Automatic annotation (TrEMBL):
InterPro entries in the cross-refs: AAA+_ATPase (IPR003593), AAA_lid_4 (IPR041445), DNA_helicase_Holl-junc_RuvB (IPR004605), P-loop_NTPase (IPR027417), RuvB-like_N (IPR008824), RuvB_wg_C (IPR008823), WH-like_DNA-bd_sf (IPR036388), WH_DNA-bd_sf (IPR036390)
Reaction it catalyzes: ATP + H2O = ADP + phosphate + H(+)
Gene that produces this protein: ruvB
Matches recorded under HAMAP family: DNA_HJ_migration_RuvB
One of the protein's GO biological processes: DNA recombination
Region (Large ATPase domain (RuvB-L)): 4-184
Highest taxon in the source lineage: Bacteria
Residue stretches making up the AAA+ ATPase domain: 54-187
One Pfam family named in its UniProt record: AAA_lid_4
Protein's UniProt name: Holliday junction branch migration complex subunit RuvB
Assigned GO CC terms: cytoplasm; Holliday junction resolvase complex
Length: 349
């Protein structure tokens, strides 16, 4: 069984990839939400089709599990083009990239996941390939080295990154279109779940979809994962239909609460409110209080707590926001920093 941390993390596990592939929407119309990105992308692709050219290079940025890989597959499908998949970490030498580029066929879509993790020399080769559809292959070493220019067939690069800010400007500028994916609204996640339930042949009530969607942290990958756990629960309990009560009971058992907080998130909040009176408290002290590594608290629990407005970051440390006490069903002490002072500011370090 997964522990609760795994259940609510936005990254994917290797065994999960197969089922994810099966649940992926295959065209833009089936892709839920992100209406602006979808409209803009659809325009880029339509225009390319009319001009009978390959589409402009596309950069997709946004947190894990929001649909970047899915969109790249949709782009290839909509353009009726083959898709080649690689990733930044797999391209450590310029030669790795040259090998991929020189074997592309005309119009092919090249998807580079985690493009911010490519090596510098490969990145520079990519600039030229994106702009002029040409690369220089270096043959030999030292003084005898020569550059052999190689023409490339026109192709569309789709780059994906969780950290658009880490991309060097020259690379970012060479994309004709950048789509930034946002977290999904509960209503949108309900649609994702409805579609998945149909594909998994499950009978689920509307209220149950709402219940699961509300616990999914704005992330389709998490929504689909929670749905599968609820399905297991219903199977064992021999339920024909999954209703809101069953969904809530199942997810409570997996320790994913009504707002999508898991055991670690709640532990951090509870420590902050009850052991440190709402803070401010340093991150490492907070981590010790919950028996976790500082890094785990910072990268796994904190981003969602801050996003949900339950925890704040100040120059003097972490503080609980009023919603934290409310969520835990506790009374906020009168001397809690948030109640007494105006020192709160959204600090970025
Ligand atoms: N808009 C959407 N509509 C329906 N399902 C979606 C949507 N976006 C994502 N999904 C589902 O969520 C899962 C994860 O999506 P995907 O792999 O595309 O995310 P990602 O952004 O590439 O994540 P990562 O950054 O971890 O690579 C897929 O199984 C897909 O079916
Ligand atoms: Mg991906």
């Amino acid at each position: 069984m997964n522990d609760s941390t795994g259940l609510t993390s936005a990254g994917s596990e290797p065994e999960e990839r197969v089922i994810e592939a099966a649940l992926r929407p295959r065209n833009l119309d089936d892709f839920v939400g992100q209406s602006r990105v979808r409209q803009q992308l659809s325009l880029v692709l339509e225009a390319a089709k009319i001009r009978e050219r390959t589409a402009d290079h596309v950069l997709l940025s946004g947190p894990p599990g929001l649909g970047k890989t899915t969109l790249s597959m949709i782009i290839a499908a909509e353009m009726n083009a083959p898709l080649r998949i690689s990733s930044g970490p797999a391209i450590q030498h310029a030669g790795d990239l040259a090998a991929i580029l020189s074997s592309l066929s005309e119009g092919e879509v090249l998807f580079l996941d985690e493009i911010h993790r490519m090596s510098r020399p490969a990145e520079e080769m990519l600039y030229m390939a994106m702009e002029d559809f040409r690369v220089d292959i270096i043959v030999g070493k030292g003084a005898g080295a020569t550059a052999i220019p190689l023409e490339l067939p026109p192709f569309t690069l789709v780059g994906a990154t969780t950290r658009a800010g880490l991309l060097p400007g020259p690379l970012r500028d060479r994309f004709g279109f950048t789509g930034h994916l946002e977290f999904y609204a509960v209503k949108e996640l309900e649609l994702v779940l409805r579609r998945s339930a149909m594909m998994l042949d499950l009978s689920v009530t509307s209220a149950a979809f709402t219940e699961i969607a509300g616990r999914s942290r704005g992330t389709p990958r998490i929504a689909n994962r929670l749905l599968r756990r609820v399905r297991d629960w219903a199977l064992v309990h021999k339920l024909e239909e999954i209703d809101a009560k069953a969904a809530a009971a199942a997810l409570d058992m997996y320790e994913v609460d009504a707002r999508g907080l898991d055991r670690l998130d709640r532990g951090v909040l509870e420590a902050l409110c009850t052991k440190f009176g709402g803070g401010p408290v340093g991150l490492s002290t907070l981590a010790i209080a919950v028996g976790e590594e500082t890094e785990t608290v910072e990268t796994v629990a904190e981003p969602y707590l801050v996003r949900e407005g339950l925890m704040g970051r100040t120059p003097r440390g972490r503080i609980a926001m009023p919603g934290a006490w409310e969520h835990l069903g506790l009374a906020m002490p009168k001397d809690a920093i948030f109640a007494s002072a105006q020192t709160y500011e959204n600090d970025e370090d």
